[in-house]
Amino acid sequence: MYESIKKLVKSIVPTSFIRKNDKLLRKVVSISYRGDEYECNVCGFTMSKFIVLSNGNKLCPKCGSLPRTRRLWQLIESEIEGKEILHFSPSKSMSDRIAKSNLKNYVTTDYEDEFEADKRHDIQAIDEPDNSFDIIICYHVLEHIPEDRKAMSELYRVLRTGGVCFIQTPFKDGDIYEDDSITTPEGRLEHFGQNDHLRIYSADGLKSRLVEAGFSTEVKEFIEKNDNHLGLKEREIVIIALK
Questions:
Q1: 84, 135 in Cβ contact below 8 A?
Q2: What are phi and psi of 237, to 5 degrees?
Q3: Which residues contact 168 (CB under 8 A, 6 or more apart)?
Q4: No. of H helices and E strands in the chain?
Q5: 198: which DSSP letter?
Q6: Is 133 exposed, middle or buried, given 0-12, 13-18 or 19+ CB atoms closer than 10 A?
């Protein structure tokens, strides 16, 4: 129901109006979800339930955070004070939350202009100096990138020594699956799960390519109960890449 209503609203209301009034619209939606059974750690809203999307993801009715957003905030909350951060394709809920923190510098970027961001960097040729950032967030980006190895080298270049890059994509078991001959949206949807994805990584496969780029990496797997208080995924993988 939520997704149908959202699609209808987007079809009749200008995107600029929705972006400008996003917080007000979500505040109205969240009224009927108030309670104390669950909590969003990104915005602090407590609720009787999450909005459950068709793919099973649990959406915060107040700020729109997804399970992966709430997991990410768990990982970085204690790490970001005084840091310089580069954030690719940031969700509004996460960029708002990070921007409220005590940071030295926070740069958001989205090449396709699908998300609100400061810049439009091509991740395959990032227009930033070497060793510029302490933390990079690269969530659900690399699976869209034609030259992903070049993108990983660029992430390594702009990250400072001792810095960390938080990376996530959809993952599968086995090897990375990619096929350059699959070029249509329909073919990509069938083979890679989304019409603008170019591959499906395995965690080990992505780790291997990051190591080739110079990173040392850790694959972190999280297991949760289905009814956990923060609405996190039952199983989730995040790759921590260190320089």
A1: yes
A2: -120, 135
A3: 68, 72, 138, 139, 140, 237, 238, 239
A4: 8, 13
A5: -
A6: buried
3-state secondary structure string, 73-128?
A: HHHHCCCCCCCEEEEECCCHHHHHHHHCCCCCEEEEECCCCCCCCCECCECCECCC
What local confidence, expressed as pLDDT, does residue 5 receive? Answer: 45
Every domain of the chain and the residues it spans: 1-65, 66-242
Residue with the two structure tokens 């990496």: 217
Residue appearing with tokens 């090897």: 175
Domain 66-242 of CATH type 3.10.180.10: no
- pLDDT surpassing 80 at residue 24: no
* Closest-CA residue to 206 (of 195, 197, 219, 189): 219
Q: What pLDDT does 2 receive?
A: 54
Nearest to 72 by CA among 41, 48, 109: 41
Confidence band for 123, pLDDT divided at 50, 70 and 90? very high
Average pLDDT over residues 49-77: 94
Reported as type and span, the H/E element at residue 191 is: helix 185-192
Cα–Cα distance measured from residue 155 to residue 133, given in angstroms and rounded to the nearest whole number: 10
**Number of alpha carbons in the 13 Å side-chain half-sphere of residue 202:** 8
d(CA 237, CA 239): 7
Residue 208 clears pLDDT 50, i.e. is over it: yes
